[in-house]
Recover the amino acids of this structure.
């Protein structure tokens, strides 16, 4: 089973109109050799979605949102629906990022509803899971991530959904798990997805690693078995670093 790698950039609450030049530069550096090997998408803040959609389309990159509401529309001040993201040019949306889970109290049930909303709108959800440092230190990492997968995946999800394993303690800290720990978690996640969706679908689901991926460690992390790409935060803000990460697939 060959799964086409995906490298997704999560800009979080960063980026002004001037930052769109970085997407143009990403497109220029995303040469044929790299295009043949990996999909690249950028997930800018909501304010830039429509403009970034046009720039990303010209640059040959995909576009993703960072979150969506479960409802298609209505009285939800400040929220954005999956349908709105689709209309702005998105084909992906991140759901259940640990910063959403911690800052906004999102539960697995909320994440599952958002993932279902993404599918309803014709978007691919990137469903984030990952343990905290105390949970890993207590030996509970697999249990926690297994429960998040069980609770966050819609029951009848198709195989084009994406899972992102992001240990919370590795996000934005410069710390990463060992390659053995990444391999163990991704193999476990694959089994858990199989238990939920069946073997055929599970073999096709892309499982990304996220947490302090940068050009200097991307090759080591992205060649681990069952790692089908990366969700990249800080290193996705500039074309130089983002293409540096993706270049692990050259
Ligand atoms: C993220 O927020 O999804 C992330 C992986 O961030 P960073 O790469 O900065 O650790």
């Amino acid at each position: 089973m060959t799964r086409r790698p995906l490298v997704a950039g999560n800009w979080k609450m960063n980026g002004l109109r001037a930052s769109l030049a970085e997407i143009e530069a990403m497109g220029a550096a995303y040469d044929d050799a790299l295009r043949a090997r990996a999909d690249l998408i950028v997930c800018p803040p909501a304010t830039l979605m429509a403009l970034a959609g046009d720039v990303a389309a010209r640059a040959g990159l995909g576009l993703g949102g960072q979150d969506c509401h479960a409802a298609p529309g209505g009285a939800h001040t400040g929220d954005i629906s999956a349908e709105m993201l689709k209309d702005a040019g998105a084909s992906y949306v991140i759901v259940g990022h640990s910063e959403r889970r911690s800052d906004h109290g999102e539960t697995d049930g909320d994440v599952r509803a958002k993932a279902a909303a993404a599918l309803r709108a014709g978007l691919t959800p990137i469903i984030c899971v990952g343990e905290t440092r105390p949970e890993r230190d207590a030996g509970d990492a697999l249990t926690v991530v297994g429960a998040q997968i069980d609770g966050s995946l819609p029951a009848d999800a198709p195989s084009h959904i994406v899972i992102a394993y992001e240990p919370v303690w590795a996000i934005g800290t410069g710390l990463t798990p060992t390659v053995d720990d990444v391999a163990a978690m991704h193999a476990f996640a694959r089994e858990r997805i199989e238990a939920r969706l069946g073997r055929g679908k599970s073999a096709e689901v892309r499982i990304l690693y996220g947490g302090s991926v940068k050009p200097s460690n991307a090759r080591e992390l992205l060649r681990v078995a069952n790692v089908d790409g990366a969700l990249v935060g800080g290193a996705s803000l500039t074309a130089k670093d983002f293409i540096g990460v993706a270049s692990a697939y050259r």
Notes: DSSP finds twelve helices and eight strands in the chain. The two ends are 20 Å apart (CA to CA). The chain has a mean pLDDT of 98.
